[in-house]
Write a structure and sequence with these properties.
Structural class: alpha/beta
Largest sheet: 5 strands, mixed, barrel
Number of domains: 1
Radius of gyration: 17 Å
Helix content: 25-40%
CATH topology: Rossmann fold
Number of helices: 6
CATH architecture: 3-Layer(aba) Sandwich
CATH class: Alpha Beta
Number of strands: 9
């Protein structure tokens, strides 16, 4: 893993990517943030040494380097999912690469199904914490101390300082945001009514199929993380209805301008 990460880092540095201020992982339907980025370089994943290739519709698979809000950013347009068949180390590989390109601050975004009865479809939720129900763990196996410690402190997976700043920005713009706990399941099936009940029972506010492994690996390497989720469907008691990937994307597309506005100002001011 170490050698592959360093090989990819060297490749990207040779293309002109130098010490980004932020790494950003753009989830389902949230890719329009790139419209706000002054692009210096755009690379399809298939052209990047050792990178997997995203197979999910709506995830275009490009690494974008440029400027946003006066800061240098490295954005993944399309992420990798465990349910695609990649192992969990492949899923999180780009986060390790970001770290060794100089990224210390990571912003992650996703779409999720809400179970908090106070939420509604289209809400933007700041992730305050997470619950890991993935069937594999990205730090399982022999630990390479060059990446980080064997046992990782997870008492603050999402930066409270970043959360407070984003709340301040949302208030300035009269944008209502929710806060809550994100639970990660493997997917690719959407949850059954009983599974939605379980998610709520264990203390989460929403459920999705990504993000948590990325944040675990980021924390392993000492990165600071901020997460945001768009509630694209509701699965609480009395709310369970049929849902499709296309419907999830459509809701996320409607919310993406709001998310892009918040993230742009956040990057500019934080």
């Amino acid at each position: 893993m170490w050698d592959k990460v360093q090989e990819t880092v060297a490749f990207l540095q040779s293309k002109g990517i130098t010490k980004p201020d932020y790494g950003i992982i753009l989830g389902t339907g949230l890719g329009s943030l790139v419209d706000n980025i002054t692009v210096d370089l755009k690379l399809p994943y298939e052209e990047i040494v050792n990178f997997p290739v995203s197979t999910v519709e709506g995830h275009s698979g490009e690494l974008i380097f440029g400027e946003l809000g006066g800061k240098k950013v490295l954005a993944m347009k399309g992420r990798f999912h465990y349910y695609e068949g990649w192992d969990i180390q492949q899923v999180t590989f780009p986060v390790r690469v970001m770290k060794y390109l100089g990224v210390d601050n990571l912003i992650v975004s996703n779409a999720s199904g809400g179970v908090n009865p106070l939420f509604k479809v289209g809400d933007v939720m700041i992730i305050t914490d997470h619950i890991n129900f993935m069937p594999d763990h990205p730090l399982r196996g022999q630990n390479d101390k060059r990446f980080g410690p064997r046992f990782v402190d997870m008492h603050e997976p999402y930066s409270m300082k970043m959360i407070a700043k984003m709340e301040e920005i949302a208030k300035q713009n009269n944008i209502k945001v929710q806060k809550g706990i994100y639970l990660a399941l493997q997917g690719p099936t959407f949850e059954t009514p009983a599974e939605y009940m379980m998610v709520k029972a264990v203390g989460a506010d929403c459920v999705g199929m990504s993000t948590v492994p990325e944040v675990i690996v980021a924390k392993h390497m000492g990165m600071t993380c901020f997460g945001v989720s768009v509630i694209t469907d509701m699965g609480g008691e009395g709310h369970v209805v049929a849902v499709s990937h296309e419907e999830v994307q459509e809701v996320a597309r409607k919310a993406e301008k709001v998310v892009a506005k918040l993230v742009k100002q956040f990057v500019e001011e934080y």
